[in-house]
Amino acid sequence: MSGRRDFLSMPAPENYVAGLGRGATGFTTRSDLGPAREGPSEEQMKQMLAKRAEQLGAAAPSAYGVVAVEKKETEDEEEDRFQDPDNEVGLFSSGMNYDKEDDEADRIYQEIDDKMDKRRRARREAREQQERDEYEANNPKIQAQFADLKRALGGVSEEEWAALPEVGDMTGKQKRAREASRANARSYAVPDSVLNAAAKSGELDTSISSNDADSGTMTNFASIGAAQQSALQVRLDSAANTGGGVGGTQTATSGTATSVDPKGYLTSLDKSQLQGGEVPVEDVNRARVLLESAVRTNVNNGPGYVALARLEELAGKVHTAKKVIQRGCEQCPRSVVVWEEAIRLNKDSTHNAKIIAANAIKLNPKQTVLWQAAIELEQTSAAKKKVARQAIDHNPQSVNLWKTLINLTEEIENVRLLFAKATETVPLSEELWISYARVAESDQAQQILNAARRAIPTSSNIWIHACRLQEQIGKVELLDKIMQRAVKALIKENAMIKREEWLTQAEICEEEGDKATAAAIVKATIGWSLDEDDERRDVWLEDSKSVSSRGHFETARAILGLASSTFVLSTTVWTAFAELEKHHGTTESLLSVLERAVNACPNSESLWLTFARETWHAGNVDDARIILGRSFEQLPGNENLYTRAVDFEVDAGNMEQARAFLATARESAATDRIYLKSAVLEFQLSNYEEALDLCSSGLNLFPGSWKMHALKGQIYHALSKLKEAQEAYSTGVRAAPKAPVLYLLLSRLQEQLGAVVKARSTLDKARSQIPKNGELWCESVQLERRAGNIPSANKLMAIALQECPTSGLLWAEKIMHLESRTQRKPRALEAIKKVEKDPQLFVVVARIFWAERRLDKASTWFLKAISLDSDFGDAWVYYWKFLSEHGTAEKREEVLSKITMAEPRHGPIWQSVNKDPKNARKSVEEILKLAVAKAE
């Protein structure tokens, strides 16, 4: 056998670590955190690998050998070359400096960065500010929540601070007493009878004992109901008091500690007295205990004594109330409310009340309220004057006392002397100066107001009163100068009030009859704090609307007058001015404004038309023709002017002149509207051939005019040429496939000819060409309903409401013709929820109430429909029919005047009557009556 050892029995090489080739350096177990044994160091590994390589005659491995170390050092050097220049190594280690081009490049990049940052800074800051505002609004700080309460503490007087009750040591006392009782408590064994009773407490006994009535244990349901009612009343009163937030009573009890809000309790007592109801005895006793506790806790609480005295008075114990308030006067001699209550309670004995008032004034000579109470106690005017003079001697700066003394004086000379003394003593009172000027003569009043302006240079009311004085004496031409001086003086004193406040003052002057002063105020101040741009016009127009809505038309007229003189070329301003004069002015003022308007804006078509129409309605037919002639010179070839001229001549019965206008218009302003107007005029005059010729000529020029196609078919229909009419409608449908009226006329004509299938096909084609059109769907439903095919009508209605869920016409058709009477009201409610405001639905609801004989509600819904859309003629038709049966003659006259002003044009029934050539040139009243006869 060989003497070589077995491999497994050979000793491990020096510094051998198992798994070293795989990167292992030891192992860690759960019992000891750390390597099992420390591996060889780097130097040891290098020596070992070098020794092995020497034995084998090979180079050392690069993993740990010298080559790797040299490579690592080379890589470190390569990495060091690209270090930061500030470290002064690598490429920049030579210490060379930047040149001027580098500095310029750095500066340019810096400017670009600054500019980009500045461009986005405004939006970024606005966004950050908005986020901060939203966060602060959603998460307010405690100090912000109580900021208003902190500010309110600044108005608390010394007496109110002194009247605050002391907290005391009631809570600590209760806690110590409770702990003492627990320490001295003893425990006893519970008897079996108590355990048995507790076990049986949850059982339900259905037997009735015959001795219950005699034993007095019968349940008194009346007392329980009364107690519940009393508790409910208490909760309601508490909710009413606390819900208002003002004058509520707050009473908190914790053991024997009680806090009462005396002022709130006073208010509650006043409410009880005003209601005149009897207060329950238990409530009075409970309140008495609370108030007596509050008074005992703080003997200097004046409002507490007042509340307790009023409680006793409410309970009928007036003598006790006087004793309580007397004790309050002794304990709180500086409390004004206590002395006032004492004087009030003793008014049954004037002598005692005067003694109390004298004592109160002696202790509080500067309290004008007590002096006023003392003056009221006097019986004669002389005695009241005497007390008032004494009061003024002690309080010469009190404006109320001066007013009281002046009101007690009857002689006008003495009144003026007192005013002179009062203004001398209290020179900063606007009220005294203005009242002095009112009672003085006109010349003296001017001097008084001049002195007032010197005394109070920041007062705007004195300047306004100076204007009113000049208006009253007839010097209206001075008002504008006075107001201009006023504005300059107030600006100099930094006392210029807001323009909204000036408008309010103007409205007050108008209410009191000084209209010229109101206009002067508007002229001088309406542009205050507004920039000279177009926004002023919108602001002034809005001001005029708001002022006129409050009934101050002179102020609104002054605003629009200034706006029209400032924005001379603004058609909007002149139109608003004309509307104001039309509704709240005279005919002369309206025509004057329109004359100025057309002179300022000669190219405004609307102003010329308005001017001509209002002149015609005023009865000046020749003047209206002259105005139209002037408008033709300014706007030659304008079709609206020609059509208006034709309407005027037709109303006047001058058909030849109307034809001449239309002929001129066809030559100079050939439009489809002019041709249509010419054909309609001939159709109304029964000149059917000429009307057809005009339609043909117009269609040659304007083949896409659906109105002309419809008129041509209607002319053939009137001539009983139904086939030609059908051909005209068919041609129109092909020329104007998006016109629903042509489809409706064609389908109705086909239905009249008996071709219901063709009519149905026409409407189907129309719905495909014009989707989601409520009129076409409604016509399809009506076609099936007229044919007696109710199931198909219901099916079509269901599809139609899916296509047009907000169509009031469809809902009205469904409710009135496809629903039973019992289902009409629920269906109307559903329709109103989906279609919020539609006059047709309002009319349907009114008709439902009318059928139920609920006439008040029916009238209300008719008025809603009319006020919502006065142009919807069917609402007027059904309302007039309703009034014909259930209204008065006065109401019908009122409705007739309103419909004449409204001149409605829409509505299925109204249009069918109004556009009939037979009804041409009929009045609104005649058309209304014809439509009522046609309504179902």
TrEMBL record:
Work out whether the entry's keyword set contains Cell inner membrane.
no
Q: Where is the segment annotated Disordered?
A: 19-44, 71-142, 167-187
A GO CC annotation recorded here is: U4/U6 x U5 tri-snRNP complex
Pfam families on file: HAT_PRP39_C, HAT_PRP39_N, PRP1_N, TPR_16
Ranges annotated as biased composition (Acidic residues)? 75-87
Report the subcellular localization.
Nucleus
One Gene Ontology BP term is: spliceosomal tri-snRNP complex assembly
Q: Determine the domain of life of the protein's source.
A: Eukaryota
State whether keyword Nucleus applies: yes
The segment(s) forming the PRP1 splicing factor N-terminal domain are 12-173
Main subcellular location of this protein, as a coarse class: nucleus
Q: Which InterPro entries match?
A: HAT, HAT_PRP39_C, PRP1_N, Syf1-like, TPR-like_helical_dom_sf, TPR_rpt
Sequence ranges of Basic and acidic residues compositional bias: 106-117
Q: Which UniProt keywords apply?
A: mRNA processing, mRNA splicing, Nucleus, Repeat
SMART domains xrefs? HAT, TPR
State how it assembles.
Associated with the spliceosome.
Q: This chain belongs to which protein, by name? A: PRP1 splicing factor N-terminal domain-containing protein
Q: Which organism is it from?
A: Ophiobolus disseminans
